[in-house]
Amino acid sequence: MENLIGGFQDILTPVNIAWIALGVTIGYVVGVLPGLGKGTAVAVAIPLTYYISPLAAIALLIGIAKGSTAGSAVSAILLNAPGEPSSAPTALDGYPLARQGKAHKALKMGLFASVIGDFISTLVLIVLAAPLAEYALLIGPVELCAILLFSLTFIGGLSGSSLSKGMIAACFGILCSTVGLEIETAIPRLTFGVLELQDGLPLIPVAIGMLATAEMIVQMGNHKSIDQQTSLLDEGNASREDKIVLWEDWKYCIPAIGRGTAIGTVVGILPGLGASVGSFLSYGATKKASKRPELFGKGAIEGVAAAESADNAVVPASLVPLFAIGIPGSVIAAILIAAFIIHGVTPGPMMFVEQPRLVYGIYAAMICASLLLLCIGYFGLRFFALVTKVPMRMIIPVVLFLCAIGAFLQGDGIFGVMVMLAFGVIGFLAKKLEFSFVTFLIGFVIGPSFELTFRQSIALLNRDITQIIDRPIAIAFIVLTVLTIWRIAVANGKKNQLAQKDSEIPKT
Amino acid sequence: MKNSMLSNLGLTFVAASFGTAVVAGPALAEYPDRPITMMIGYKAGGGTDTVGRVLAKVMGEDLGQQINILNKAGAGGGIATIKLKKAKPDGYTILLNPSTSLTLNPYLVKKLTYRIDDYTYAGMLTAYQAALVAPIDRPYNNLKEFLAYAKKNPGTKYAALNSTARMVMNVITKDSGLDISIVPVKGGAGMLAVVFGGQVDLAYSGGIHQQHPTKIKLIAAGTSSRQPLGPNIPTLREDGYDMSFDSFTTLIVPKKTPKAIVAKLEAALAKAAKNPDIIALSARVSFPMAHRNGADATAEMHRQWRDYGKLIKATGTTAK
Amino acid sequence: MTRSDFISGIVLLVFGLVFLFVLIPHDIEAGPEGVLPPSLVPNLMVGGIALLSLILIVKNWKRPGGQNVAREQSPISISEVKAVAWAITIIGVSILLFLWGGALPAATLLVIGLMLAMGERRLLPLVVTPVTLLIGAYLLFYQLLGTSIE
Which of A338, B35, B203, B231 is least enclosed by beta carbons within 10 angstroms? Predict the structure, then answer.
C-alpha cells in the first residue's frame, strides 16, 4: 500500500499525467478510425517512448492500449465497421441502436462498460497478479486447446442460424491461419509459390477486410436507403431518453458488465486466447443468461455493455503473466516488454524486488489512464457521434481509404491491401449468405494458438487420448464443447420446425 | 532526424511517405537517413529479443536514426533469415540472430536453403548459454540422473524450441530405448511457460532460463565450457555426448549491402559493445559479452559451419 | 432451408474436396519422421468443411415444398452486385496504380473513384476530401508518429 501511494506520487506530476492523457487521446482517436486498431496505435507510438522517462513511456503506451480498445467501439457502433475483431460483438447491438437514433446512448454505455471493465481488471492485476499467474500456469497446452475448442464452438453457435454453417466458417478461418511456414518444420503450406504468403496471411488486413471493407461494400450497395433512414432520424424527435443511459438500461447492463469483466479478466490472464475470445464469450454468455434473448442483434444495450466490458478487461489482465512471471500474454504485453527492456527493466517477479517503485508507478498510471479514458471518451463521443449525420457517399470512401492505410501499415505494404480486398469480397459473400464472418475471424485469430496447442497436446498426451484422464480441466471443457453443440443443434432444430410452419410467409 | 524528412517536402512527400516505389535518390550518401528495421527471429520476450531491444536503442542513438524491432518468429530464426535474403541490400533491413540459425539449422531442416555465404556479417555481440534445463522441483540434478528418471518413467516430456533442440534429444536417446516425447514450443517465452507450469520434464534453452533461477535449474550445459551460473553442472561433452552448441548473437545484413554501410554498422556495434547499458544487460541476463568485428565474425561463421557439419555427420542426422 | 444454402453447400463441398485430394497433397510436403505432418491441421479443417457442407446439402435437399424454394429471392440485390464490382474495380486499379506510379496517384484515385461511384458529383467535396485525407494521413503517421510507411 505504501508502495502504491509512492507510485501515485510519482505519476501525479503534470508531465506524466500529460503523457497518459496524450496516450489515451492518440489511442482513442486511432481506435475510432475504422481499420486502425490498438496494434497499429501502440506500434507506431513506440518511437515516441525512446525520448522520455521509463515511467512516462510505459504510461503512454498503457494509455494508448486502453484508449484504442475503448475507441474501437465507436466505429463499431456508428458504422458497423469495428476497428478490430474484439469489437465485432459490440457492433451486433451497437449498430442497430445507432440506427434507431440511440447512438449517444450506445456510445455512452460502451464507454462506461469499457471503463468499468478496465478499472476492475486493473485492480485485479494490482492485488492478485502473483497468485493468479501461478494458478494460470496450471493451464497447460492441453487445457488451452480444450478451452480454444470450446470458445470456437460457443462463439460459432452464437451467430447465424445454422450450426453447420458456423462451423464451416470456423474451419475456414483456421484453414486460412495455417497458410505460411509451419513453425516446427519450416515447410511452406498453401502458399502456392507466393513468397509473401510464407509469413502467412497478415492478420490485420484479413480482419479489416472481413470487418470493415465487407461492411462498407454492403453499405455501398444500400447507401440510399441508409441515408434516407438517417434523414428520418434527424427529423424524428431524438428525445433525451435516447441520448442518455437510463436507470432502466443500467438494470440490464450491470449484470452484463459484471459478467463481462470476470470473463475478460480470466481470458486475459490465460495466454493465447486474446481479447476477441473474451468479448465474444461475454456477449454470448449475456445473451444466454438474458430474459430477453430475442432482442439481441436488434439493439439490446446490454449486448454492448457485455462486449465492451470484457474487451477492455482483457488489457490489464493480460499483463498479469508479464508482471508476475515475465511471459507476455498478449500483443500489448509483448510491446510493453520491449519498452521495459529498453529502459533497463527485466519484466518478471524480480521487478517487484528490484524496482518496486516503478511497478507501483505503472499501477498508478493504469488507474489514472482508466479515469482519463472516462473523461476523454465522454468528451470525444459527442464529437464522433456527429458522423451519423454525414451522408454515406462521403463516409464510405473515407473509411475504405483508412482501411487501405491500416492494411498497408500492418500487412507488408501493398500486399496487405490486396489481402484486404480479397477478404472484403469473401466477407461480403459470407454476410449475404449468412455464414458467420465473425466465427471465421475468431477461427483465424486463434488458429495459430489452436494448432500449436493441438500439436503440443498430442505430444504431451504421448499420442494417447486416454491420458487426458489426468487433466480434469481439459475434460471439463471438452464436455462443455459437446454440450454446446448438442444444445445448439436442438435449439436450431426447433427453430427450423417453426420456420417450416411459417414458410408461407415470405422472408424479408 | 526530422530535418531530413522535412527536406523531402514538396510534391513527392506523400509518395515518399507511403511507399518505396518512388523513393530512389541518393541512399548511400547520408546513410542512415530514415529508420532502420532490425529483424529478430524470435518472439518478444526471449533471449535474443532482450539483447536486440537494447542493442537497437544503443546503435540507433549512435547512428542518429531509430532502429525499429520487427519480431519474425519461426523455424528457429529461419523465417527471419529467409526474409533477410529477400530484403533490399540497402542497410535499412538488418537481422540479429544466433549464429547457429545459419551454421547449424540448415543441416537440420531441408527447407532452410540459405547458406552462410548468402549474407554479410557486421559482427557478433554476446554468447548464448545453451543448456538443458528442468523445472526446479524435479528430483534430478544432472543429465545422468535425468536419464535414470526417464528410464523409470516412460513418456517423459521434453520441450524443443527448434530443430537443434530436437537433434540433441535424438542423439541422447539414440540406442537407449528411452521413451521421451518431444513437445514443440514457440521461442524462449513458450518454453518458459511450459517449464514454469511443470508441463514438461526437460527443455532446451538458449539461455533465457538464467533469468529465472528460482524456477528453473540447469541439467547440462550445452556450451563447450561450463557455465558461470552452474559451475558444478557438467557439459554435454563431459557427459559423454560429443557435441556443444556455442552460438553468438550475430548482426547480419543482405549479401550485397554496400561496404560503407556495413562498416558503419560494424563501427556502431563495436561502440555498443563498450556501452555500459549493454554491459549491464549482459551481466543481468547472463549472456557473456563476446564481441567480434565483421571479419572475425565471418571467420567464426565458417568455423561453426565446418564443426557442425562434422557433428551432424558423426551423429548420423540428416536434414529433414 | 434455402436454395442459396444448397448452392453454397455444393460449392464448399467441391472446395473442400479439391483441397483435400489435390491442393494440399500437391502443395504441402510431408514432414520429417517423428514430427506430426505439417498438413495435419489443414487436412482436418478442409475435411471438416467437406463434411459440414455435405450436411448442409442434405439438410436443404430433404426440405419439402419445392415451389417455395423456387420463389425465393436471391440474397444479394442488384445494387449490391454493382457495389462489389465497383469496389473490386476501384481498389484493384488503385493497387495497380500504386505499383506503377506510387502512393499519391493510387490514394487519390481510391478516394475520388469511390466518391464518384457512389454518386458524388459536386466538385468541392471531390477535391477537398482527398486532399484533407492525404495531408492528414501524412501528418499523423509520418510527422507526428515518425513511422516509415513502406
Answer: B231
